[in-house]
Amino acid sequence: MFAGLGRLVANRMLKFPRGSKRSSYTQLYVAFFLSGLLHFSGDFMLEKRMVYRAFKFFLLQAVSITFEDLVIYLAKGLLRRAGVELKPGRADWSWAEAVVRAVGYCWVTLWFCLTLPVWLDELSSIGVGRLDRGAITQFLLDTWQQWV
Q1: The whole model's pTM is what?
Q2: 12-45 as b/e, with b when 16 or more CB fall inside 10 Å?
Q3: How far apart are CA 8 and CA 5, in angstroms?
Q4: What are the sequence ranges of the domains in the chain?
Q5: What angle do CA 132, 137, 138 make, to 5 degrees?
């Protein structure tokens, strides 16, 4: 549903060519904005002071994907210079593809450990679902908050 609205905005309203980076990123940000809006309404009904938590969380996901794309672009360039060519979607797995996949899974896990508390801590502070994050996530969150 959100993807269709993203295509409408990107391709019909803004007239970005299909398949272009501008079109893709517009669709990405529209979809995450609408997800934030949908979750915002539930948060607002629960507690009015939580207004921007859902927006912040969901837009951070779009920013993360944009950052990932930049890192992937740079890494592919470096790997190509080193003579390693990745072939995504192929059945033959090389060591480089396995490493890239493992790094991707670690990145996604780390990102959720850092950003999910942005949204859920407010719920916990008003008494909904006391959170036990676990030692690793709490350490990462404490470290993150010291940097910010």
Answers
A1: 0.72
A2: eeeebeeeeeebbbbbbbbbbbbbbeebbeebee
A3: 5
A4: 2-147
A5: 70
SS3 111: helix
Quick one: tokens of 134? 């676990």
Check if the beta carbon of residue 31 is closer than 8 Å to that of residue 3.
yes
CA 102 to chain centre: 17
* pLDDT tens string 83-99: 877 666 655 567 777 78
Class of residue 75 by CB neighbours under 10 A (exposed 0-12, middle 13-18, buried 19+): middle
CB 33 within 8 A of CB 58: yes
How far apart are the C-alpha atoms of 50 and 86, rounded to whole Å?
43
pLDDT tens track, the chain, 148 positions? 666 878 888 888 888 899 899 999 999 999 999 998 888 887 777 777 666 778 888 999 999 999 999 988 898 888 888 887 766 665 556 777 778 788 889 999 888 888 887 777 666 666 655 556 667 777 777 776 777 5
